[in-house]
Design goal:
By secondary structure, the chain is α+β, with helices and mostly antiparallel strands. It is 36% helix and 25% strand. It has helices at residues 8-23, 42-58, 71-80, 93-98, 166-174, 187-195, 209-222, 253-265, 269-277, and strands at 31-33, 39-41, 63-66, 83-91, 104-111, 114-122, 127-132, 136-139, 142-143, 156-159, 180-182, 201-207, 225-227, 245-250. It has a 7-stranded mixed sheet with strand order 3-4-5-6-7-8-9, sandwiched between helices. Strands 11-10-12-14-13 form a 5-stranded mixed sheet, sandwiched between helices. It has a two-stranded antiparallel sheet with strand order 1-2. Helix 1 packs antiparallel against helix 2 and helix 6 (187-195) runs parallel beside helix 7 (209-222). The longest helix has 17 residues, at 42-58. It is globular, with a radius of gyration of 18 Å.
Length: 283
């Protein structure tokens, strides 16, 4: 039987439809605390269940990986599936449970270990970010391009201090190279806001595959660049063995080179990477 490749528009309609249905009404939600200390709500689980059912009904040959599955289920998909969906049903759960309006749904289609389709939906602003590998990035159907002319580090940065080594954090606070700094608390949307030029620099110490699979593709297709703290490419599913990665990103490759050089000039890289490997996931 031939494989029917998912259409980005069709998948986006499914993701946005579920997001509006689950998150469009009242936001009262039962909260549970997971083993790693992060939150999960019945909204996370409802979105995950609905998307699994709809995606499986339409593309039964594609496996399914999601944040709220068990470790055993996740490992089974990662190690055996040639193609699978990679879902974060509600990133920014702490924001969501606190009434802070910054959270989103992220879905990537993974082939041979890399994302070839990425969709991220922001239910608060009704913004749907979409990218196909080699096909560009879009926001609500309009082409999305990063700021290619920007080279100076004196711009806006989104930095997650909680997951960074103390040495690096102290340098960033005492003598920041950027004009202004934000920490928004939902990394799937942070990738998209970087792609949309709402800030130009990004630094995060610990993300899992479902945190970055779709967002990294969207940023790359919009013209931005990202690497890990040691300068390595952002990995595909092979990263799952170590569970989390660090991210250094910028709105264009030249700006990323300057941003990474500034970081490496002011941080003990060994301690920086050791800290990132033990950092908690976003929530």
């Amino acid at each position: 039987m031939s494989f029917s490749h998912p259409s980005g528009a069709e998948v986006a309609d499914i993701v946005c439809g579920v997001g509006r249905a689950v998150l469009g009404g009242g936001l009262q939600s039962d909260i549970q605390i997971k083993r790693d200390g992060s939150f999960v709500t019945d909204h996370d689980l409802d979105i995950q269940t609905r998307l699994y059912e709809l995606l499986h009904a339409r593309w039964p040959e594609i496996s399914f990986l999601a944040e709220e599955m068990s470790d055993t289920e996740q490992t089974e998909v990662i190690t055996t599936a040639e193609r699978f969906w990679c879902l974060d049903p509600l990133d920014g759960t702490t924001n969501f449970t606190s009434g802070l309006p910054f959270y989103g749904i992220s879905l990537a289609f993974m082939e041979q270990g890399v994302a070839t389709l990425g969709i991220i939906f922001d239910p608060i602003r009704d913004e749907c970010f979409l990218a196909n590998a080699g096909g560009g990035a879009f926001l609500n159907g309009r082409p999305l391009k990063t700021a290619q002319a920007t080279r100076s580090l004196h711009c806006i940065a989104c930095v997650d201090f909680k997951r960074l080594a103390r040495t690096l954090s102290e340098h960033l606070v005492a003598r920041p190279p950027y004009k202004s700094q934000r920490n928004l608390g939902a990394c799937v949307l942070e990738w998209c806001w970087l792609a949309a030029n709402r800030f130009q620099l990004y630094l995060h110490g610990g993300q899992k595959l479902w945190d970055y699979a779709a967002g990294n593709l969207i940023l790359r297709e919009a013209g931005g660049s990202a690497v890990t703290l040691d300068g390595s490419p952002i990995p595909g599913k092979d990263q799952f063995k170590s569970r989390k990665i660090s991210v250094v990103a910028a709105s264009n490759p030249a700006l990323l080179d300057d941003w990474l050089s500034w970081i490496h000039d002011r941080a003990d890289l060994y301690n920086l990477l050791l800290n990132a490997k033990g950092a908690p996931s976003s929530g």
